[in-house]
Amino acid sequence: MSEPASEPRDSTLDLNPKFDADGLITAVATDAATGELLMLAHMNADALAKTLESGEAWFWSRSRQRLWKKGESSGNVLRVVEARIDCDQDALWLKVDAAGPACHTGERSCFFRRVENGKLVRG
């Protein structure tokens, strides 16, 4: 039994991001060389445009309610090697070359903890 389609499948090559009600799209960044997941953040239309134009990752900070360039104060910029958008155009995948730790804590990845038996462990 097949699932009913809620809207026609988009198989075009037109970039048409589907921003949510807050004007945001989810973006994940992975290391272009290793595939390691580095971070998850959000972009608005301005952040996406600046990222595509500059080749460096820009995001929308939900906590600070402002646009920010990753690494603007730390120097740990994310140089975009490749940008991909999912089939629904509501999530972005950035393959990046990281100039340093991606996490604001100084960890290489924001996903430096693992959930094990309901507890957090490093690694």
From TrEMBL:
It catalyses: 1-(5-phospho-beta-D-ribosyl)-5'-AMP + H2O = 1-(5-phospho-beta-D-ribosyl)-5-[(5-phospho-beta-D-ribosylamino)methylideneamino]imidazole-4-carboxamide. It is an enzyme of class 3 (hydrolase). The keyword Zinc applies. Pfam families: PRA-CH. This is Phosphoribosyl-AMP cyclohydrolase. Binds 1 zinc ion per subunit. InterPro entries: PRA-CH, PRib_AMP_CycHydrolase_dom, PRib_AMP_CycHydrolase_sf. Zn(2+) binds at C87, C103, C110. Pathway: Amino-acid biosynthesis; L-histidine biosynthesis; L-histidine from 5-phospho-alpha-D-ribose 1-diphosphate: step 3/9. Signal peptide: none annotated. It is found in: Cytoplasm. Belongs to the PRA-CH family. Catalyzes the hydrolysis of the adenine ring of phosphoribosyl-AMP. Residues 39-112 form the Phosphoribosyl-AMP cyclohydrolase domain. Mg(2+) binds at D86, D88, D90. It comes from Sphingomonas plantiphila. The gene is hisI. Homodimer. Keywords: Amino-acid biosynthesis, Cytoplasm, Histidine biosynthesis, Hydrolase, Magnesium, Metal-binding, Zinc. One of its GO terms (molecular function) is phosphoribosyl-AMP cyclohydrolase activity. Its EC number is 3.5.4.19. The lineage of its organism: Bacteria, Pseudomonadati, Pseudomonadota, Alphaproteobacteria, Sphingomonadales.
